[in-house]
Design goal:
InterPro entries: Rossmann-like_a/b/a_fold, Universal_stress_UspA, UspA. It comes from Haloarcula marismortui (strain ATCC 43049 / DSM 3752 / JCM 8966 / VKM B-1809). Keywords: Plasmid. This is Universal stress protein. 35% of the residues lie in helices and 24% in strands. With 279 residues, it is α/β, with parallel strands linked by helices. It has two domains: 134 residues, Rossmann fold (3-Layer(aba) Sandwich); 118 residues, Rossmann fold (3-Layer(aba) Sandwich), CATH 3.40.50.620. Helix 10 links the parallel strand 9 and strand 10. Helix 9 runs parallel beside helix 10. The radius of gyration is 19 Å and the shape is globular. 42% of the residues are buried.
C-alpha cells in the first residue's frame, strides 16, 4: 500500500511521524511506501525576509524520511507550492495512493474540537481514504492521543453503499484490529425499513469474528452524529471508521453532515473512506 503523509513540519506533525507505535500500525495494515508531502502556501514567496521555506522544508522532510526508512518504509519526499489540500490530493492521485494521513490537533477550547483547515478541506475533498491522526493540544511538546491506530475500531453505518465501502476497509485494517464496536443510529427522519438493524449488525459482526476480532453491536435512536459521538466517548476506540458521501459535482466529494460532524468532533482518530475515484 502507498500512503501520502502530509506534514506542515509543526510539532504536532512531528509527534505523529516520530511515534514508533503509529508507524508500526501502518506497517501492519500493509503500508510499505510513504510519500512525505509538505506544501508551501501560494502567498508565501521566497523573496520574503526570513522565508527560505523550500530549503527549510526539504531539511525537515529529510529528517522525517530517515525516521520512516529506519522503520522499514520506502520513502519519497515532495516539497510543492499551492493550496495544501489540492496539492495533497493531486499527489495522492498521481502516485495512486491508497491512503492519506494527516496529523490534527484535538480539542480547541475556543472552537469545540474543530479540526484545522487543511484537515477539514482534505476530509471534504479527499480522493482516497483519509486518516486524521489526533494530536494533543495546548502543549509545546504534543503527543498522539491514541497511538494504537486501529487496535479498537468504532464503525458507524447506515447500511448505505458508502458505509459498506468503509466496512470493506476491514479487509486490511483487521491485521491491526483486536476489537470493534458496530453502531447504527435510527433517525426519526429515516424511512421505515423491513430489515432489522440488529440482525444486519450481527451479520457484520460474524464477518469480523472470522478474523478473531472481538465485536460488540449497538442500535441507537436519535441524531446520528450525536449518538455516534456518544458511543465514541463511552467505548474510547482508537479510531472511528466512517464512509463519506459524494453530493456535488461542483465541489467533488462533499462530506455529508454526519461524517463532517464526526471527523470534526471525534476525540480520537478518524478513518474516512470516500466514494470511488470515479464518483
Amino acid at each position: 500500500m502507498r500512503a501520502i503523509y502530509a506534514t506542515d513540519l509543526s510539532a504536532a506533525s512531528e509527534a505523529a511521524i516520530q511515534n514508533e507505535t503509529c508507524l508500526e500500525c501502518l506497517g501492519r495494515i500493509g503500508v510499505d511506501t510513504i510519500h512525505l508531502v509538505t506544501v508551501i502556501p501560494s502567498n508565501v514567496h521566497a523573496g520574503m525576509p526570513g522565508m527560505n521555506f523550500s530549503k527549510r522544508r526539504e531539511q525537515g522532510l529529510t529528517r522525517y524520511q530517515n525516521v520512516m526508512e529506519d522503520a522499514g518504509f520506502d520513502t519519497e519526499t515532495h516539497v510543492v507550492r499551492g493550496t495544501p489540500h489540492r496539492r495533497i490530493n493531486g499527489i495522492a492521485e498521481a502516485e495512486k495512493a491508497d491512503v492519506t494521513i494527516i496529523g490534527s490537533r484535538g480539542q480547541s477550547p475556543l472552537n469545540n474540537r474543530v479540526i484545522g483547515s487543511t484537515a477539514r478541506n482534505l476530509a471534504r475533498t479527499t480522493v482516497v481514504p483519509l486518516l486524521v491522526n489526533r494530536i494533543e493540544r495546548s502543549t509545546d511538546e504534543p503527543d498522539v492521543l491514541r497511538e494504537h491506530l486501529f487496535q479498537r475500531v468504532l464503525y458507524a453505518t447506515d447500511f448505505s453503499e458508502n458505509a459498506t465501502r468503509a466496512f470493506d476497509a476491514f479487509q486490511y485494517l483487521r491485521h491491526a484490529t483486536q476489537e470493534a464496536t458496530l453502531v447504527h443510529v435510527e433517525s426519526p427522519k429515516d424511512a421505515t425499513s423491513e430489515a432489522d438493524p440488529a440482525e444486519q449488525l450481527a451479520s457484520l459482526a460474524d464477518t469480523l469474528s472470522q478474523w478473531d476480532i472481538e465485536t460488540n453491536v449497538e442500535v441507537r435512536r436519535g441524531d446520528p452524529a450525536e449518538e455516534i459521538l456518544d458511543v465514541e466517548a463511552a467505548v474510547t476506540p482508537t479510531t472511528t471508521l466512517v464512509g463519506s458521501r459524494g453530493q456535488s459535482r461542483m465541489r467533488r466529494l462533499l462530506l455529508g453532515s454526519v461524517s463532517e460532524d464526526i471527523i470534526a468532533q471525534a476525540t480520537g482518530n478518524v478513518y474516512l473512506v470516500p466514494p470511488p475515484r470515479t464518483a
